[in-house]
Amino acid sequence: MSSKKAPLPVNKPSAASTTPGDFDALVSAIVRIHVQSQAMAAKAVNTSLTARNWLIGHRILAFEQQGKDRAAYGERLLPALAQRLAAAGLKRVDARELRRFRLFYSVYPQIRETLSPEWLAGPGAAALPAALARKEEMERFITQMSQEAGE
User: How confident is the model at residue 79 (pLDDT cuts 50, 70, 90)?
Assistant: First the structure.
């Protein structure tokens, strides 16, 4: 018998295993970028949906207040509106959600102060009552809406 053993195969190390610290740092950096970007996107979506819901609530309330027989029409408005919006392809716009949007606007009219100029100049701009532009009138409006919401 021969005392010589067959040579063991030599595996070339991959680039990742030759610099484990650098590779781990790369992975960590990419994970951090992803997590931070995902959090920023979620926050942007949340902010956008909040503004959208508030503006929709305002439009509904403004529309209702122009009606002569608000109580009778209001009972029919939200189901009819929900049906038309769903037919237009919008999701989560049933009468119950629309009622929530209207209540959201009624309870938090001060959100207008937090909207960016882009939002205020956007699709909901024409709907915002001029009275909300001045702080004193805004405070009276908030008080009035709070009292009405509590009734």
Answer: very high
Whether 104 and 54 have beta carbons less than 8 Å apart is answered as: yes
Cα angle 126, 129, 131; round to 5: 145
Residues 6+ apart with CB under 8 A from 64: 70, 73, 74, 77, 102
Picking from 99, 118, 112, 104, the residue whose alpha carbon sits closest to that of residue 139 is 112
Q: Tokens in use for 47?
A: 């902010």
Phi-psi region of 122 (alpha: psi -120 to 50; beta: other; left: phi over 0): beta
Provide the whole-model pTM.
Answer: 0.59
